[in-house]
Amino acid sequence: MRHGVTIAGFRTALGGLPDLTARAGRVAVAMTMIGALGVVGVLVSAPAASAGTLTWSTQASYVAAASSLLSGSCPTASTCVAVGFSLAGGSALYETTDAGATWVNDSTSLPSGITYLNSVSCTSAGACQAVGHGQDGAALGWNGTSWSSEARPAGANALASVSCASAGACQAVGTSSSFTGTALGWNGTSWTSETVPPGVSEFHGVSCTSAIACQAVGLDAFGGGVAV
After folding, report:
1. Residue 18: how many other CB atoms lie within 10 Å
2. The sheet that has 67-73: what strands, in order across it?
3. What percentage of the chain carries pLDDT values higher than 70?
4. Using an 8 Å Cβ cutoff, are 61 and 43 in contact?
């Protein structure tokens, strides 16, 4: 891999693809490999285009820090959240409220004990869900004022992706402690386990268009692709 090459669609060392989810306006997060120094965050954005063709540009205001950003979500054209992890340890969280003109490192607002965050999904500026890894998994909720940890069913210890159709309807997927695919549903108050078809070993991504219409992708027990 060449030094300083930004890759927006490669398989990461964490076993998944960067989540490039965005709504009005576009914000993507990726990794830049800087020789043997490690991984630093990159933020790029593009305005909405009527023909579906976007022109991406690096956010000049974002100074690449010792962090890797894995997922971004924009509930409005001006408000976006990006999550990942810090190379120094712990989660990373960046926010913009001016369409990417400035990004603020708000990682200190996250609860302690979260190793890193894989995915974030926001339905409004006051309602987001983020999932990732901690001692026994991680699910966080944003209520417009603060981030807080949310209880999860036992065994859901590696959540890779989350998608919210509304503030009260989210799906999170990943891998269980028994190394099988796991899926959780959020009803606005709590997370509950859902039935996963046999043969799914891990989920990497999920996308929901309504409370009852979602698609998830991952791997089967033999390493082949699976969609449910």
Report:
1. 25
2. 67-73, 80-86, 91-96, 104-105
3. 72
4. no
**Is the Cα dihedral 161, 16, 215, 209 positive or negative?**
positive
Residue 184 has pLDDT above 60, yes or no: yes
Q: Are 39 and 87 in contact (CB under 8 A)?
A: yes
Q: pLDDT of 99-112, one tens digit each?
A: 888 888 899 899 88
Tokens, residue 77: 């054209």
* Separation between Cα atoms, residue 157 and residue 187, nearest integer Å: 20
User: So what's the pLDDT on residue 148?
Assistant: 93
Please tell me whether residue 49 adopts helix, strand or coil conformation. Answer: coil
Single out the residue of 168, 157, 220 nearest to residue 193, CA to CA. 157
How far are the Cα atoms of 43, 94, 98, 136, 173 from residue 152, in angstroms, in the given order? 30, 24, 33, 9, 12
Number of C-beta neighbours around residue 123 at 10 A: 18
> In the structure encoding, which two tokens stand for residue 5, read together?
């090459």
CB atoms within 10 A of CB 207: 16
- Contact present, 139 and 191 (Cβ < 8 Å): yes
* Mean local confidence (pLDDT), 47-62: 64
* Tens-digit pLDDT profile for residues 117-156: 999 999 999 999 999 987 667 899 999 999 999 998 887 8
Query: Given this model, what pLDDT does residue 12 score?
Result: 30
From 191, 169, 190, 194, select the one nearest 180 (Cα to Cα): 194
Specify whether the CB–CB gap between 59 and 94 falls below 8 A: no
